[in-house]
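Field: sequence (string)
Field: structure_tokens (string)

Example rows 1 and 2, in order.
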Amino acid sequence: KDESKSLSLSDCLVNEEWKNALTNYMSSPPFQALEHFLESEWCSGITVFPPKKDIFSAFNLCPLDKVKVVIVGQDPYHGPGQGHGLAFSVRESVPKPPSLKNIFREISDDIGTDIPTHGCLRSWAEQGVLLLNAVLTVRQGQANSHAKKGWEEFTDEIINILNENENGIVFLLWGNQASMKGNSINEKVHTVIRTSHPSPLG
């Protein structure tokens, strides 16, 4: 059985830096409403991806002071076993989705690297790439099913926190939903690159 079922959503964020930065927001009414919505989904027996323990993997693997690059996508993969809390990433045993194949192909074309044999981007996260979806959860088989439930405001808060970094971060915003996340970023300090979503559907 999934031991994380007894955990609250906020308990799943274990990185102390991010926890401290988000303390006020995670006790705010908007975040509590999001928690309530997700608890009602889980209690109703609805399958939600990624598993609860993985929802904040992007933050747990990439501490706030290590963030150099932020890749913003839309929402998690909605197939069984795919999403594990890192935007665009899948576990090593899972076939690479079309979006990720396109990402790898573009990187290979640009800088001549070999295309990886698996689609797990954990090593990117550990090197300072925050793999952030605009919405962090989804119902099985239903893309965008958790849009407008409170995640957008949460990830806006993440962008606001990162915007305060004076060292300069590169933000890669892929797709219309992600592109809107860049409106408040200080482009005198940070680099913002907007492009289409890597999905074959655009």
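Row 2 begins here:
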Amino acid sequence: MAKLVIVRHGQSQWNLENRFTGWVDVDLAPKGIQEAHAAGEKLKGYTFDMAFTSALKRAQHTLDIILDEMGVKLPITRNEALNERMYGDLQGMNKDEAREKFGEEQVHIWRRSYDTPPPGGESLKLTADRVLPYFEKEIVPQLKAGKNIIIAAHGNSLRALVMSLEDLTPEQILKTEIPTGAPRLYELDENLEVKNAEYL
């Protein structure tokens, strides 16, 4: 039975400042570094064959710390298909500033609707439209071959994966929070049906 662990990067500097981050390449905050160490501690004793992460350093740094904490070296594939949702005109903006500029209701729709993107950005649906084909092409064959895999990525790119793996509706996934630095373990059968899913 293959194991897949997904982990959202630890708290970033802009999470801390309550900004829309998207594809802006900010690094981890001190708390995020601690979260990554704690995730590595929780994963000691698990074995992985390969790792995947995004093209953004907050996810890459999280993965590096986790593997270092576990005392393992793995082949790592970095790809922007696993990047965070692109927030377009909202990127860099504090969430309160965005509410002042665009109105609370509009910002809420952009953040929490499945298929309404902010100006110049992606909806969760568009994010899933790039994450899931990459997952199917690059990661699924490895899982089917019995490989154990860890993915360090972002709240919304991982939401897309969770939606697919756990067979959730758009309404359900929008209510699903992915906590920073918390490894989620999936045990998958040969058809990639989820036999067990839990936060470690």
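free_text_note (row 2): The chain has a mean pLDDT of 97.
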